């Protein structure tokens, strides 16, 4: 038995002839390379020249992109159409077609011999019909913030929980309960009825009653304590009074607006800023000078207006005063003690310098005499540069920019009506 041999993959069998020349010698490699190049070169005949031009063909011969000879189509199509027209029989009634090849053409090949289209007459910009005026939106009014869900532009919110306080006389502060005990069951004092109708405050209603301008069931009533029955009809002039929807809104008054419902001289009033607030007529509670800015309350609730205006209720108001010169410590103590003016002593509840700057002073006061804050500082030799009411009856300017208004929420109304 023959012994097995080890396998060598690089070893070539000795019986096979070499397939390639031996290029181990550089001279042999170069000689072999030159011989191969010389054998591959063959002389080219002149007739074997390839045709020039795109698509092949002899020199000067026109060919299409697919190699077709275009010399057969040298005659224009227009000549062939003219030949066919000349061969048409003479007896035919059909008119000969007009050659439109030379007709003027537009930019897109349209025949421009057609009648031009009538152009629409141009109108000046100011002659164009405008769009109809859109209804005023909430953005056109001076209402602050966005309307809450369910609110309608031009309508005051409904304070539905107020009826619980009207039905239960034990709710509210002691003053309110004592006033309710004076009235009989199911009846209302005449001055209060007039105030609830939004005509005026109860004090002004007493003046109307005394002047004989109020009628009950067609008869003039001048008795101050007259009780109105639920079935009675109360008239002021030619208008029948009834309890209307009560509205309460707060305005951040800007400068140069008068606190009045009407000005005979035509100057701007605060009513212009709230004219789109509600359908009910409202009145300002108290007043602010023309150059005084800050919070101003409007309502048609005569009871609330009377309560906030009367000094006995001690309605708190806070003002920020800007002075032309720093306030001295001595004058600060004198203001806190009370300044004697020509119409009596002006008592303040509190006074302090704002943020350590003596040019700015905060004053808390409850008296409502005319221009009382300005008169206090003018009495001491100061000029008031700016006066701003920053708080009124617990209401603040939070989220209420200058010149904007908002409706009071239900909690604020309940506090003003029943807990002050």
Can you put this structure into words, describing what you see?
By secondary structure, the protein is α+β, with helices and mostly antiparallel strands. Among the domains are: 183-241, RNA-binding S4 domain (Structural Genomics Hypothetical 15.5 Kd Protein In mrcA-pckA Intergenic Region, Chain A, Roll); 248-418, Pseudouridine synthase (2-Layer Sandwich), CATH 3.30.2350. Helix content is 21%, strand content 17%. The protein has helices spanning 26-40, 77-86, 162-167, 174-182, 190-196, 202-210, 302-309, 329-337, 372-379, 410-418, and strands at residues 188-189, 214-216, 219-220, 227-228, 234-236, 239-241, 248-253, 283-285, 292-299, 317-323, 339-341, 344-346, 350-354, 357-365, 384-392, 395-396, 405-407. The strands form four sheets. Strands 7, 8, 9, 10, 13, 14, 15, 16 and 17 form a nine-stranded mixed beta sheet that branches. The longest helix is centred in the first third of the chain and has 15 residues, at 26-40. The protein is elongated and about 150 Å long. Mean pLDDT is 76; it is low at 50-61 and 130-140. Residues 1-14, 33-51, 60-131, 157-171 have a biased composition (Basic and acidic residues). It comes from Hymenobacter lapidiphilus. Its EC number is 5.4.99.-. One of its GO terms (biological process) is enzyme-directed rRNA pseudouridine synthesis. One of its GO terms (molecular function) is rRNA pseudouridine synthase activity.
């Amino acid at each position: 038995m023959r012994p097995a041999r080890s396998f060598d993959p690089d070893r070539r069998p000795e019986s096979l002839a070499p397939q390639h020349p031996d290029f181990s010698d550089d001279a042999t490699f170069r000689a072999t390379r030159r011989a191969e190049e010389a054998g591959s070169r063959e002389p080219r005949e002149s007739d074997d020249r390839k045709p020039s031009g795109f698509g092949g063909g002899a020199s000067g011969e026109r060919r299409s992109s697919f190699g077709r000879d275009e010399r057969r189509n040298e005659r224009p199509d227009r000549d062939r159409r003219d030949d066919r027209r000349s061969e048409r029989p003479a007896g035919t009634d059909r008119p000969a077609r007009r050659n439109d090849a030379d007709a003027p053409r537009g930019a897109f090949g349209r025949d421009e011999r057609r009648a031009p289209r009538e152009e629409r007459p141009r109108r000046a910009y100011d002659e164009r019909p405008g769009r109809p005026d859109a209804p005023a939106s909430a953005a056109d009014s001076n209402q602050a913030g966005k309307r809450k869900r369910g609110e309608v532009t031009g309508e005051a919110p409904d304070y539905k929980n107020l009826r619980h306080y009207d039905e239960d006389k034990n709710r509210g502060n002691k003053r309110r309960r004592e006033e309710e005990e004076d009235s009989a069951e199911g009846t209302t004092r005449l001055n209060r009825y007039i105030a609830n109708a939004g005509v005026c405050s109860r004090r002004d209603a007493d003046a109307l009653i005394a002047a004989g301008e109020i009628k009950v069931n067609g008869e003039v009533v001048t008795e101050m304590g007259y009780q109105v029955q639920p079935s009675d009809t109360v008239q002021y002039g030619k208008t029948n009074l009834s309890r209307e929807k009560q509205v309460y809104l707060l305005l951040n008054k800007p400068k140069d607006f008068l606190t009045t419902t009407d000005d005979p001289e035509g100057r701007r009033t605060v009513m212009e800023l709230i004219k789109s607030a509600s359908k009910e007529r409202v009145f300002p509670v108290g007043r602010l000078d023309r150059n005084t800015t800050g919070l101003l309350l409007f309502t048609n609730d005569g009871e609330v207006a009377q309560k906030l205006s009367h000094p006995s209720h001690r309605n708190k108001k806070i003002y920020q005063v800007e002075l032309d010169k720093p306030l001295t410590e001595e004058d600060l103590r004198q203001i806190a003690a009370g300044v004697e003016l020509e119409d009596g002593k002006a008592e303040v509840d509190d006074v302090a310098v704002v943020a350590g700057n003596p040019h700015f002073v905060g004053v808390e006061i409850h008296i409502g005499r005319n221009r009382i804050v300005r008169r206090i500082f003018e009495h001491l030799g100061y000029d008031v540069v700016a006066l701003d009411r920053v708080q009124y009856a617990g209401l603040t300017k939070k989220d209420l920019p200058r010149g904007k208004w908002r409706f009071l929420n239900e909690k604020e109304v309940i506090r003003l009506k029943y807990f002050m």
